[in-house]
Amino acid sequence: MKEIHHKILLIENGPSDYEWLHLMLSDETASTAFFPSDIQHQVISPSEFSALDQEQPLDFNALLSAISKRLQVRRTFEIKHVDDFLDGLAILAKESFSVVFLGESYTDNVQVLFNQQNKHFFEVPVIFFCNRENPDLAAQILSFGAQDYIVKKDTSSKELVRTIVHAIERFKSQSAFKQSIDETKQYAEALLMANASKDKFLSIISHDLRGPVSTIMSSLELLNLEVEQLEPNQIQRLSKGMYNSIQKVYHLLEDLLQWSKIHTEQIQYRPIQIAMHELVVFNIDIYFGKAVEKNIRILEDIDPNLIVYADKHMLNSIVQNLISNAIKFTSNGSIEIVARVHESNVVLQVTDSGMGMSQEVQERLFQIDKPYTSVGTAGETGTGLGLLLCKEQVERNHGTIAVASEPGKGTTFTITLPQHAPKTEEGNIGIGGHSPT
After folding, report:
1. Domain containing residue 394
2. For the chain, how many structural domains are there in total?
3. Cβ atoms within 10 Å of 169's Cβ, excluding its own
């Protein structure tokens, strides 16, 4: 027989109601009564039926009797009684109860009782009980949030237990439904915000595309109409301008394509264990020539045995973006790349001695609806999408990205990624004689 314990808080003046409640719930017939919701408390394993002799005719009466005994439930009730409503609230804040009983002396102030400030009354089913029939009061009490309303003289022990059981189950169902509604609302609001941000983002991209395309169109129109009157140096200048505009359009479309692939999951997340030192050195070599042009020293301090768990393609893109960004905003200075293990994560920091940025700019770096771009120390331009892509890729790898900077004092980007695969996953180590691309 399954035993179910119910802890009851009784809030009512005087001892007579406590005595009545205790007497009613002590009834043996009521405490062992079966209700349909009791089935959820039972687990009947197949082994309990395995002993049946399959060669003999099935005795349905014996089977039903066995099931009936198996489903029997005994309820025990623990009652805590307080006279004062405020004392009851204080106890509810500290202890958990199956149900709260409120007596007749509090029914005149029922709206006050279920005020939103008394939040603990919304965390446990409440049952009112009175000595007299009052349908209007019952309707009012239920409308404010109580689970049930009973009249003492008309309620038997079994009916009282049934009221408690049903109030508890109904409250659970209502709470689950409310939680589902709240989660759906939050999800819908998040979707609306995301769609609004993406709409604004696309409008900004369209504006950014219009500029260079307009420049190309104007240059081509001039060449088409006056090519014979133009000097060679003028044609060369127009050609260079168109080349720069086309480059900007290409990089913008390339970044936009990568961003869209991430959001539509066309780029699959395939994490493995990667040797961080090898990957960083490989990317430093890519940008070595550009760094030399701007008189920048790139230093790295990473243990050759340090392993990080990430998607190799995405991690390459992240490191490339951070090194390229550091070079863009630095000249006659240095870039330091450091990686360390902190708890179960790898922390990668890329620090430059460049021009730095204000707090306002830092807050805009990762905002999809306000992509930020600025001219580098050698006049380099950008799309404003690089760091957005970086953030998307870091988060796709279950990591975080942060920035710290001051104008004129350089910038540090900090990436945190898991060091090892979860226990349920396995990965290969990306080291050896090949480049991590």
Report:
1. 270-437
2. 2
3. 17
Q: What is the pLDDT of residues 399-431, one digit of tens each?
A: 999 999 999 999 999 999 999 987 655 444 444
Q: Among 155, 172, 198, which residue terminates a domain?
A: 155
Closest CA to 2 of 46, 32, 36, 37: 32
Tell me, what's the pLDDT at 432? 36
Cβ-based neighbour number of residue 95 at 10 Å: 10
pLDDT at 418: 94
Q: Specify whether the CB–CB gap between 331 and 354 falls below 8 A.
A: yes
Q: Judge whether 194 lies within some domain.
A: no
Q: Are residues 18 and 141 in the same domain?
A: yes
Global pTM reads: 0.47
Q: Is residue 361 part of a domain?
A: yes
Asked if residue 246 belongs to a domain, the reply is no
Which of the residue ranges 236-240, 318-322, 410-414 would you say has the lowest mean pLDDT? 236-240
In residues, how long is the chain?
A: 437
| Positive/negative CA dihedral, 171, 183, 186, 95 | positive
- Helices and strands: H and E segment counts in the chain: 13, 13
The residue whose two tokens read 């030399």 is 292
Indicate whether 28 pLDDT > 80: no
Q: What is the CATH number of the domain that holds 310?
A: 3.30.565.10
* Burial class for 15, CB neighbours closer than 10 Å (0-12, 13-18, 19+): exposed
